[in-house]
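Re-run with default settings, no changes from the original entry. Doing this only to confirm the output is reproducible before filing.
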Amino acid sequence: MNLAGGATAAVQRTRGTGGDGSGKALQAVLDEAVREGAPGALAQSRTPHRTLNLSSGVADLVTRRPPRADMKFRIASITKTFVATVILQLVAERRLRLDDTVAEVIPGVVEGNGYQPDKITMRMLLDHTSGVADYTQNPRIEEIAISDPRHDFTLRELAEAGLEYPPDFPPGTSWRYSDTDYALLGMVIQSVTGRTYVHEITKRIIRPLHLRSTYFPGTNPRIRGPHLNGYTPVQEGDPTRLRDTTEVNTTFARASGDLISTVGDLDRFDSALLAGRLLPGRLLRAMLRPVPGSQPYPGSDMFRYGLGTVIATTPCGVKVYGNGGTLDGWETWMGATRGGRHAMSFVFTTDAVNQVQLTTQAVIAEYCPDAAAGTQAHAAP
């Protein structure tokens, strides 16, 4: 096992032996991710009393150096929680309302093809009940990204790629995850503030919270400074043959999955959010209210979706609020309890492992260690 040194002075460096916050149960999940094919796995658990960094495997397959807590990675859809926070801040400032429609805020963007722009609200975009089709199903986006790796996708270009498809359902009548919702919310931020979502998130969240390792890379394919490498299967479903996907222009994921960060920065952000430092109470409660029938992790009933957040209800009754993400080469998670006193973030450096199963196991291991220990004992030969 590799225990990475963190950026704070209060880093616990020894491995404990029980389900007492020592990290044994969570370490077992990281080790399982590596057994399933992830080159590396890294997590940070944080409470007011200690910061615990755990890792397994390697940071990259060339140098085979151990993962460290200060290493950056692509956080994928955890980006959505940053976007949602800024949208709700604009609501708090009375510059926007959750019931405002796309027809009112970004007129002329959502139209035709069966869409009802006067019925699609900001709330529906935030919680994925808008019915707007997901642009990631449009093969044109991938074709452009492959043929022109330097192409700078715009939010409108991404939104229009989704709107080429008819609605999945009438607004507000069902739930389906759609990256197009967040491309549209990125446009909303610019329409309301006159500045990009990158500018507003940096000004409102990244700088005030001193998230020094968190940034938007734009078209730059490289991750600056110490970082983990991400890997995706050469052939889908085969984790034994991987290609390095670390260097990539992620403008194809603008406002839905383009941030770079570290486990420490994610813990700090989620703790601040859950402690009420970024939003007034009424809007934080709205953000954390689960949508009935939502299923952000297909096949698992432990997770529900709120406004740009994932809510996990653990078997021991602890509720955890955060988000998770998948990108070629990465599977990520960020979560914390109400009040932000207990946070845990992780990254697996491939998208070839079972995200739903391992995320479920990691959350239970962190917040219900006795239950996790019992499950592991039962499963042992």
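Residues 179-193 form the longest helix (15 residues). The chain is about 30% helix and 15% strand.
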